Amino acid sequence: MKKIVVLTALLAFLYSCGSKDRGELVGVKGKKWHPEKPFGMSLVPGGSFIMGKSDDDIAQTKNAPTKTVTVPSFYMDETEITNSEYREFVYWVRDSIIRTKLAILADEEGKTDPAEDGIAKYAFKDADTADLTPWEKYNLDNYVGLGVTGYEGRRLNDEELIWDYSEIPDEFYAEVMDSMLIPEAESYNGQRTLNWTKVRFQYTWMDIESAAKNKGLKRTEFIKRENLEIYPDTTVWIRDFEYSYNEPMHNDYFWHDAYNDYPVVGVTWKQAKAFCEWRTLKKNIYRRERKRHQINKFRLPSEAEWEYAARGGLEGATYPWGGPYTMNDRGCFLANFKPLRGNYAADQALYTVEADAYEPNDFNLYNMAGNVAEWTASSYDPSSYEYMSTMSPNVNDTLNARKVIRGGSWKDVEYFLQVSTRDFEYRDSARSYIGFRTVQSYMGTDVVGQGPR
User: Fold this and answer.
1) Is residue 220 part of a domain?
2) What is the full per-residue pLDDT of the chain (453 aa) written as tens digits?
3) What global pTM score does this model have?
4) Where a domain ends, among 157, 178, 198?
5) 401 contacts 431 by C-beta, under 8 angstroms
6) How far is Cα 78 from Cα 41, in angstroms, rounded to an integer?
7) Is residue 342 part of a domain?
8) Does 159 lie in the same domain as 236?
9) Do residues 276 and 438 make contact, with C-beta atoms less than 8 angstroms apart?
10) Phi/psi zone of residue 221: left (φ > 0), alpha (ψ -120 to 50 degrees), beta?
């Protein structure tokens, strides 16, 4: 026992001699954190506001009584997520799946020498362990191969993929590409396009809320695994409207460069969540390679965050620009919606418009009213205002399939454009008039709004 005490005292003495804190309690300091505004986002300073219907409830919904709530600061996308941005997500997942298939086939065929031509160039990076760190070798020997496919955790090759079929290097590469196309019997006009049902994004997340309320259960009980198709449902342009010719929108809206900057539609609530997970993963991969702090996750806004951001600091306003009118003093409409008893063209737009069309609100956020309605993270309950918290409120019931959508869309009347109007859609539904934008919590509390402007 004496030896242990002496050893402990000696270690403490040695540490104290080598320390520069003079024996004072100074805390553990890591790298200095510098808040970084994500590209394409605006900082919404936290504060309190009166949430809900401040005007008469003309529609008699009786589900948005006024309530003073407070939300912390957060970053929000200045525009709805566009076709171009969502397409980047789709391409990233598609390429990852093809690279995985190529690497597995190369492994099975023994084509793992990167000096070889053909599919060998797409073998797993860790097939050659010469450049691996001791930690990577340890994980490779002890953990890889224990999953469902036996290839989980392997490092994919970043060799450029070949899309020109005339340049495919060997029959193994051709086999993988063929497996990703629609069957010959389903093709027409001599075109075999990619089978987008095979482009699925897999990720895991932890249900922190349930874990906090059910202490004592194993951590694995709260880890959820998602595996879903991520390609937007382009048939919404046909299914949403009976006896209407919308085939050009079905054929071209998501793919054609003419619509790059238009908001993506046909995306379910779950697909929007998957996009947030991918965006976080993409950014953290970049930062990890440069040995920087990991960022906190991108996510869908809560209903309260969305309304606070839409108001742009204007207390009691009917619309993001103030109100109570949808026209300016020159008789021009201020948003893309269904005005004048169905005259879609009166606002100079027929369907959707570019995500940065019209003027932004005072938080520099575009189209918080009209264009497309937007998914939020909150579950829809008509009475939720009665029991939700006043601090960073959010009702998230995993058993409730109805999710709040806000802002109204190109096919809605002006009532749905009001910042306090609530609406909902089922989380597994996709619509031609629903899109989304993402938020990221601000790290720290230095930025706080000063109330109404």
Assistant:
1) no
2) 555 544 444 444 444 455 688 889 988 877 777 778 999 999 999 999 999 987 777 777 778 889 999 999 999 999 999 999 999 999 999 999 999 999 999 999 998 887 888 999 999 988 777 778 888 888 777 777 767 777 888 888 889 999 998 899 999 999 999 999 999 888 888 788 899 999 999 999 998 988 888 888 888 899 999 999 999 999 999 999 999 999 999 999 999 999 999 999 999 999 999 999 999 999 999 998 888 888 999 999 999 999 999 999 998 899 999 878 999 888 889 999 999 888 888 888 899 999 999 999 999 999 999 999 999 999 999 999 999 999 999 998 888 999 999 999 999 999 999 999 999 999 999 999 999 999 999 987 666 665 444
3) 0.91
4) 198
5) no
6) 5
7) yes
8) no
9) yes
10) alpha
Contact 261, 84 (CB under 8 A): yes
* Domain extent for 343: 36-82+230-453
Torsion of CA 211, 215, 220, 221, to 10 degrees: -70
The span from the CA of 407 to the CA of 266, in Å, is: 17
| Strands (E) located in 407-452 | 423-426, 434-435, 439-441
Q: Are residues 181 and 135 in the same domain?
A: yes
Same domain for 339 and 426, yes or no, is yes
Strand order in the sheet with 41-44: 41-44, 74-77, 439-441, 298-299
Report how many domains make up the chain: 2
Say yes or no: 62 and 136 in one domain.
no
Q: Where are the beta strands (DSSP E) in 119-214?
A: 200-206
272, 306 Cβ separation under 8 angstroms = no
Kindly state whether residue 221 falls inside one of the protein's structural domains: no
Are the beta carbons of 401 and 81 closer than 8 angstroms?
no
Task: Please name the helix (run of DSSP H) or strand (run of DSSP E) that holds residue 175, with its range, or none.
Answer: helix 171-179
Q: State whether 236 and 370 are in the same domain.
A: yes
**271, containing H or E segment:** helix 269-289
DSSP letter at 263 equals B
* Token pair in block for residue 63: 């589900």
Q: Are residues 351 and 426 in the same domain?
A: yes
CATH number reported for the structural domain that contains residue 72 in this entry: 3.90.1580.10
Q: Is 240 exposed, middle or buried (0-12, 13-18, 19+ CB in 10 A)?
A: middle
